[in-house]
Specification:
single chain; mainly alpha; globular
Length: 284
């Protein structure tokens, strides 16, 4: 019996996972075009051996164990929780920052889909992928930036999500995501500005934090995206609309490597310099 069959049989017979195992794990279900899905929850009932490995506490041995499973072509498609989604949930632990990022890249190199969405009822192309939503929930900046490379919409669309519309998370995300530029003329720009206005008017911010939110509003109104940012948004959108997955989007952008200067190619692919990646599990 091969490794794929063993792993599937093992989980099927002994480790059926119930929703109670994930109490408190709310995966974003917002949909820019269909907001009625906002309260939908995800029910995970089974997982592959790779996902099972990543679902619980990450330790110093997990990376080697994952590498061993992947080297044996262990089935990563069985079950309804993809390995990358399971790993993103574990990114809450700041003690394994570098290890989490290395394992995420390992999974992606082995075909994991960074833009997987488990809600079949959501039809919008702007629905936030599971792994990105969980990385935001964990405030894991390095993993979030890495995953955004595979998602074609402008990163500011993350702000129009269940978790992005929470005041504390919006404050955490806005300074980072605004660096990627705004797709002027799109609905998302008015949504973000209106949200900031409402926070200020209703005084939903923390004490002595009004200046921060006034700064956000000023930035929305008086600091338009640069031509360079708008060009990147347009190029990624054009490529993304003709791509069936995040992996395909990334490969198409990689194919431009020999046609663009290295700095410009890194800019288009959203590869950021290390000093811009931010600290792990930021709280402010």
């Amino acid at each position: 019996m091969d490794v794929q069959t063993v792993s599937t049989s093992f989980l099927t017979n002994n480790y059926q996972l119930r929703s109670r195992d994930f109490d408190g794990c709310l995966v974003d279900v917002s949909d820019t075009m269909r907001p009625e899905h906002n309260d939908q929850k995800i029910m995970w009932t089974s997982a592959s051996l790779v996902s099972f490995l990543l679902m619980y506490n990450i330790n110093e041995h997990t990376e080697d164990e994952l590498r061993d499973l992947l080297s044996k072509n262990c089935n990563t498609t069985y079950g309804d929780i993809p390995p990358l989604t399971a790993l993103a949930w574990q990114s809450r632990n700041p003690l394994h920052a570098d290890r989490i990022l290395r394992m995420a890249r390992m999974l992606i190199e082995n075909g994991a889909e960074p833009t997987f969405v488990s809600r079949i009822s959501c039809r919008s192309l702007y629905t936030i992928p599971d792994a990105i939503s969980l990385a935001v929930f964990a405030r894991c900046v390095p993993l979030l930036r890495n995953l955004l490379m595979y998602w074609w919409p402008s990163p500011v669309y993350v702000l129009d999500s269940v978790i992005g519309r929470k005041v504390e998370y919006f404050k955490f995300l806005f300074p980072m995501l605004i660096e990627f530029g705004l797709p002027h003329g799109k609905r998302i720009c008015s949504v973000i500005e209106t949200f900031i206005e409402n926070v200020i008017q209703m005084k939903l911010y923390q004490e002595n934090d009004e200046g921060t939110w006034q700064g956000f509003l000023k930035q929305m109104r008086r600091k338009p995206s640069s031509l360079k940012q708008l060009s990147r948004i347009a190029l990624r959108s054009s490529i993304g609309c003709s791509s069936s997955s995040g992996q395909e989007l990334f490969q198409k952008i990689e194919s431009l490597r020999n046609r663009l200067p290295p700095t410009l190619h890194n800019y288009v692919s959203l590869r950021e310099r290390d000093e811009k990646s931010g600290s792990y599990n930021q709280t402010t």
